[in-house]
Target: 6,7-dimethyl-8-ribityllumazine synthase
Amino acid sequence: MATNLKNLSDYDPTLVPSAKGMKFGIVVSEWNQEITEALLSGAYNTLVKHGAKEENILVARVPGSFELTHGARHLIKNTDVDAVICLGCVIKGDTPHFDYVCQGVTQGISQLNVKYKKPVIFGVLTTNDEQQAKDRAGGKLGNKGDEGAITAIKMVSLVKTLKKHK
Ligand SMILES: Nc1c(NC[C@H](O)[C@H](O)[C@H](O)CO)[nH]c(=O)[nH]c1=O
Ligand SMILES: CC(=O)[C@@H](O)COP(=O)(O)O
Model:
């Protein structure tokens, strides 16, 4: 369903497990910083709203969305986080560079989910223009950061549940 038909921040809170005791890494890109900081606020506040302690949320910043994969891998390998949320904003310019950045970060994050046991959440906006990004970073269509946080909580809960069945 297209985002303009479903607000990114709309969800049923009764279906979201408690994030108490969960540890999260958030890696956020500095490109389009006004947008990505809004995504970070959304994700951070949503994690806390659902029970995560602030000391259990580790934030790392990288230059651009293409570097999100590398930052997420370091959080996975070098910390005890249960999941990593990747936040970025790629806005189409005048050249095909947009396509390569989006392809690179998408494939990179997908590979991390295959290679490691910790969920890595794709919270990257890939938009045609700045307004589309603003609409999805706390604007009329909600906040992609909220969506990333809820997704991370649900995935950590799922992984913990499935581990009990080993
Ligand atoms: N144009 C955007 C970029 N470009 C930079 C790349 O992500 C990367 O940092 C560079 O190619 C060096 O490896 N990044 C974004 O996050 N958003 C953009 O709109
Ligand atoms: C996604 C990008 O790298 C893009 O914003 C860069 O702009 P341009 O394609 O005009 O160089």
User: Anything to note?
Assistant: The chain has a mean pLDDT of 96. The longest strand covers residues 83-91.
